[in-house]
Amino acid sequence: MQVHSYIDHTILKPTTLVADIEKVCEEAKTYSFAAVCVPPPFVKLAKQLLEGSSIKVATVIGFPFGYSAIEAKIAEILLAIVDGADELDVVINLIALKNNDWQYLANEINHIMPVIRGKNKVVKFIVESGILTNDEIIKCCDIYGAAGIDFMKTSTGYAETGATVEAVALMRKHLPEAIQIKASGGIRTYEFAVQLIEAGATRLGCSASVAISKQEAASGAAGY
């Protein structure tokens, strides 16, 4: 299945070191991951380290709680793009969602999308599916699907529940076909990665990427 080619090799801990970024980028090249996902202050470094490769640099916006003001998220996006980010993983305003303020969420995405589209970058909206009801996930599919995002992403990795096969399958059922799904949070085995892909995920956010790739190689499916 070539699971390694689906992976965003991720390090987002608040104590991330330069050495951590160097290691993640080297591993991404070794295992041919799709992208690295790094904290905003390290976008420029990751871009330099991956120069000449096809590996994308992703970073997070409004992370991890999503309640930054719209203007703050846009400022973060613009700075990340200046630093060389190819992909932006944006946490939606979960406070607005839980207070049933869908108009706020529509306003947020309507301000963010033109900025990212104007720069021809990829955007993933993180909905934190582990703390949402099925009805809330379906509403997210409706609003973000209509906005024409590139990916809906399950989780930040900071909630109690990360990616689940059920949430990915529910998203796949209710999103337009052109919109992809990134599963993230708690993906630690090759078997679980395969299950998420089979449910409809086309990208996986993992910090256990190397272990997963070694399990894939042991299964004889890697083919790098």
TrEMBL record:
Give a yes or no for keyword Oxidoreductase in this entry: no
PANTHER family per UniProt: DEOXYRIBOSE-PHOSPHATE ALDOLASE (PTHR10889:SF1)
Keyword annotations for this protein, in alphabetical order, are: Cytoplasm, Lyase, Schiff base
Its UniProt entry gives the catalysed reaction(s) as:
2-deoxy-D-ribose 5-phosphate = D-glyceraldehyde 3-phosphate + acetaldehyde
Describe the function of this protein: Catalyzes a reversible aldol reaction between acetaldehyde and D-glyceraldehyde 3-phosphate to generate 2-deoxy-D-ribose 5-phosphate.
Q: In which pathway does it act?
A: Carbohydrate degradation; 2-deoxy-D-ribose 1-phosphate degradation; D-glyceraldehyde 3-phosphate and acetaldehyde from 2-deoxy-alpha-D-ribose 1-phosphate: step 2/2
- Tree of life domain: Bacteria
Single Gene Ontology BP annotation: deoxyribonucleotide catabolic process
Q: Which HAMAP family match?
A: DeoC_type1
Its annotated compartments are: Cytoplasm
Q: What is its EC number?
A: 4.1.2.4
Please state what class of enzyme this protein is: lyase
Query: What family does the entry list?
Result: Belongs to the DeoC/FbaB aldolase family. DeoC type 1 subfamily.
Per its UniProt record, what SUPFAM superfamilies does this chain match? Answer: Aldolase (SSF51569)
Q: Which residues form the active site?
A: 89, 153, 182
Q: Which SMART domains match?
A: DeoC
One GO cellular component, as annotated: cytoplasm
One function term, GO molecular function aspect = deoxyribose-phosphate aldolase activity
* Protein name per Swiss-Prot or TrEMBL: Deoxyribose-phosphate aldolase
